[in-house]
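#structure-requests
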Amino acid sequence: MTEIVVSCRPDGTVETVLKDQMFDTREVFGVTSRKINRISEILPTEDGMQFFIRWLRGPFAGTTSEKNFKSYEAAVEAEVATINALRLEGVSFA
């Protein structure tokens, strides 16, 4: 993953994926606390051989990814790409 989308809302809230190694909001914005709302989670398939995304918030809430991924890292990449694309379309996960 080489990019993340940061959404700044009119009420002053900031939405972004939690990737402190790329963009630590505590340092950038000088905040001492933050609220983290999980948008999705990566889970293993029943046999433990692949992974899928379970959506907890937003337009896909209550669904799982249509495809399974061979690695946890591949699922995370797909998860972040989907969240970034939705944020670019103006979707808020607040």
